[in-house]
Each structure stands twice: as C-alpha cells, then as structure tokens.
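Extended Data, record Reverse transcriptase
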Amino acid sequence: MYSNKTPGSNDDSPVFCKASSDEASKIMEIIHQYEATTGQLVNLKKSSIFISRNTNQTVKDNMCHILGDVKCVTQGKYLGLPMVITKSKNQNFGVVRERIKKRIMDWKCNFLSLAGRETLIKPVALAMPVYVMSCFKLFKSLCTEIKTMLARFWWKARDGEFKVHWKKWKDTATNKDKGGMGFRDIQLFNETLLTKQLWRILIHPNFLVSKMLKTKYFAKAFLFDAPIPRGSSWFWKSVSSVKYLLEAGLSTRVGDGRTIHIWKDK
C-alpha cells in the first residue's frame, strides 16, 4: 500500500504486509492511530494497494473491503518506477526514455544557444534517470537510445530531421579541459551509481537493506563471493554486475586478523 499523491514524490510511503485480512485490519488500525495522534487525516482515495496475482481472489476482496477507499491496482509506481519489476525490463525502464523524450520535446530548440542546451542537458536531462540508475542496471540499448536523443538535441536536430554531428557523443562526454563538454556517459554513470550502492552495503552492514540482502543472498559468504541464484531480484543482479569495479580498488585493513581469509584475500 502506498500513496500515489504525485509521481516521484518523496512523501510516498510504501507499507509492506502479508496478503491477509488481519494484516489489512492492522494497517487501518495504524492509520487511525496516526490520525488520532497527529490530528492529520489520511486520504485513502489517494492511496493504492498492490496484491500479488498469486493471492486468492476471496482474500483480495476481503482486504479491499477492509481498506475501504483504497484502490486496488495491478501495477503501481514509487518514485517514478514500477513497484514490481517484471521480466520485460525494457518496458519497465522505458519510462526513463519517455520522460527524457517528453522533456526534450517541450524545450524550444530554435531559441536555445549551445550554452542553453548544455545547461538543460546537464542538470535536467542527465539528472532525471539518476534514481533509476542508482538501483538498477539499464540495458545497453536503452542507454544508447537516451544518448542518441541527447545528441540530437545538442546538435539541434528535430524529429525526422538529420543534422551533422560534428563530434561523437563519446568525445563530448569527456572533460572540458580535454576538449569535451563534460556530458556524462550514461552507461558509465549507471555503473558508478551501482558501485556506490554496493559500497554502502559493504561499509554499512547494519542498514536494513544490507541485513535483508545478506540474509537472502550471502548469509554464509563474503559480499564479493555471493552467488547470483536463479530468481534473484534485478537490484541484486545489477549491483552484482559491478562487483569487479569495487573489488579492483578495494584494500583491506588487517586489524586483529579475525576477518581475514588467508586463501582468498589479496
């Protein structure tokens, strides 16, 4: 159950529970207690509930009846992303491409200088997919599509119109002191953000997400030795794909030696 007041709003609050009437009643009890304590009323009409398709229909009906005005949806969004990542990853993350495309189409290309385009690309277009790329690895084809849209916008090309690209996007993605424009390479930026997530999991083992991942994926192994079992979440597959990047620049402090693996650590 979550608030869908505004797409991507930081006020969205997901609540996870088992699919049962008792759990639904407990959620309503918590909501009523919150209202009584704070004096703020919760508008359930702006909230939705997503129930697994494997749940018995009778259980679904009972939960929806208990929750009253809460809408039952087949797929919801949290911070602009689908609540459930299905097998069609290209469809799930296609929303990133569409958001950037819509934003570019809204900009008036004819009245923008190159400096103006640079300002729009860096803090706006390249910043839009940051949250998604911090959690999931985007397909190379999707990164290429985003790169193509930004390159066409930079070189003032409209839909269906061809304009000469005087430099490869790879060259414009280098630093200005090296002759580029300082634009980010989408794929490398994606890997960088995922590596940062992996680093947080490593140095903050007491975080809830770290405990959850350790329990599920590497309860009896070190993070870098953790397998990728069949049916793993796309988040785990994503951060696991950049292990080699973090491991390459990682050094271990020996200390008392209790956490050192003689035959494995380098």
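Summary. The chain has twelve helices and five strands.
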